[in-house]
Amino acid sequence: MTNMLKKKGVARSVESGVKLQRKKASGSRRIHEVMTIAEQTGLLSGARTEVIRGRMPKALIDRAKASTGVTSDTKLLEVALAALAVADDYPDWLLSQRGTISKDIDLEF
User: Fold this and answer.
1) Is residue 68 within 8 Å of residue 27, measured between CB atoms?
2) 1 burial class (0-12, 13-18, 19+ CB within 10 angstroms)?
3) What is the dihedral of CA 7, 9, 11, 12, to 10 degrees?
4) Higher pLDDT residue, 67 or 6?
5) What per-residue string of b and e applies to 2-38 under the rule 16 or more CB within 10 Å gives b?
6) What are phi and psi of 46, to 5 degrees?
7) Which of residues 40 and 97 earns the better pLDDT score?
8) Would you state the pLDDT for residue 93?
9) Rounded to 5, what percent of the chain is helix, strand, coil?
10) Counting Cβ atoms within 10 Å, is residue 80 exposed (0-12), middle (13-18) or buried (19+)?
11) N or C, which end of the chain has less CB nearby within 10 Å?
12) CA 36, CA 34: separation in Å to the nearest integer?
């Protein structure tokens, strides 16, 4: 298989290809979860009337597509916006609570 990859001009080894497949599987699971939440909360319903554009570095687009398995620019934007819209703010809240519990409280440790 390595020879086949070299013949096609692909510069990565079989091992790195397997790692990429694992990353895509993990990424696709997260994407599925994000898109399911977005759909269940009504974020994906309604007419698609809004247009969003921007110039991005090619490396950013390539990495995002490789890690998600998404090939369409439109779908990539949809996934990115959905991920932002349904993001869980619990980690930020938890960090904001640092130092709010009195040091005098007995936690029974």
Assistant:
1) yes
2) exposed
3) -60
4) 67
5) eeeeeeeeeeeeeeeeeeeeeebeebeeebeebbebb
6) 95, 175
7) 40
8) 80
9) 60, 0, 40
10) middle
11) C
12) 5
The pair of three-digit structure tokens given for residue 89, joined into one six-digit string: 């703010």
Any idea which residue has 């936690």 for tokens?
107
- In the predicted structure, residue 25 carries a pLDDT above the cut 80: no
The token pair that represents 102 in the structure block:
């009195």
Going 58 to 64 to 65 to 70, the CA torsion angle's sign is negative
- Give how far Cα 64 sits from Cα of 5, 41, 47, 79, 90, Å: 22, 24, 26, 10, 24
pTM recorded for the entire structure? 0.61
Residue with tokens 């070299």: 6
